[in-house]
């Protein structure tokens, strides 16, 4: 299923079911299945986010799938070398649609400290080869930052939390004390 609001106007279907699209967005946002895939040191923090201390399961995203055909979120955690780039692209293409990408860490976002003049081995960011939905900065980013990245992805899937459904950690206004 495709998020029709992200398509160009000429590619949108002539009839859209707004409530059905909203419900599908909520369902997708609360059942994200990331792929078990780590390239460098950021993958250790990704594993820590899925462990019991931080418990990514609370947010509906803790079931790390062993195959790209079973997952819908790719977390690029680490440096992508130009030799590794075709493999990363193949894994992305094997994921069923709809699929999303989280770039985790400075190396995945911009190449990190490995980018300098006349370097030939490192891809200068994941967005050079894949469409990135959420960036999680840090070197390496803490597990809380990855959880925040998942919450940002969930907000993106639910159109910024504009639906009438209750979101995680919704803050209600406090009553004034007399």
Strand-helix topology:
Layout: H1 18-29, H2 42-50, E1 73-77, H3 85-94, E2 100-104, H4 106-110, E3 134-136, H5 143-157
Parallel strand pairs: 1-2, 2-3
Tell me what the structure shows.
The chain is globular, with a radius of gyration of 18 Å. Helix 1 (18-29) runs antiparallel to helix 5 and helix 2 (42-50) crosses helix 5. Strands 1-2-3 form a three-stranded parallel sheet. 29% of the residues lie in helices and 7% in strands. It is built from five helices and three strands.
Provide tags for this entry.
178 residues; 5 helices
Strand order of the largest sheet: 1-2-3
Contiguous helical run count = 5
Tell me the distance between the termini: 51 Å
Strand content: 5-15%
Encode the helix/strand succession as letters: HHEHEHEH
Overall strand count:
3
**Rg on CA atoms, Å:** 18 Å
Largest sheet data:
3 strands, parallel
Mean pLDDT: 80
Question: Approximately how much helix is present in the residues?
Answer: 25-40%
Would you tell me the structural class of the helices and strands?
A: alpha/beta
Q: Outline, from the CA principal axes?
A: globular
Query: Uncertain spans, ≥5 residues at pLDDT below 50?
Result: none
């Amino acid at each position: 299923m495709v998020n029709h609001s992200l398509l160009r106007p000429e590619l949108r279907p002539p009839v859209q079911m707004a409530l059905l699209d909203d419900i599908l967005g909520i369902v997708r946002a609360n059942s994200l299945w990331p792929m078990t895939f780590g390239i460098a040191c950021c993958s250790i923090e990704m594993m820590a986010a899925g462990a019991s201390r931080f418990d990514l399961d609370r947010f509906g995203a803790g079931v790390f799938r062993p195959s790209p055909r079973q997952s819908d979120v790719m977390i690029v955690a680490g440096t992508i070398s130009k030799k590794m780039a075709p493999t990363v692209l193949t894994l992305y293409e094997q994921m069923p649609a709809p699929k999303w990408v989280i770039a985790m860490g400075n190396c995945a976002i911009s190449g990190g400290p490995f980018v300098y003049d006349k370097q030939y081995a490192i891809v200068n960011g994941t967005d050079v080869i894949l469409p990135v939905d959420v960036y999680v900065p840090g070197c390496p980013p803490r597990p809380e930052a990855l959880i925040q990245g998942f919450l940002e992805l969930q907000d993106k899937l639910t159109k910024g939390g504009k639906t009438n459904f209750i979101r995680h950690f919704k803050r209600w206004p406090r009553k004034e004390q007399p």
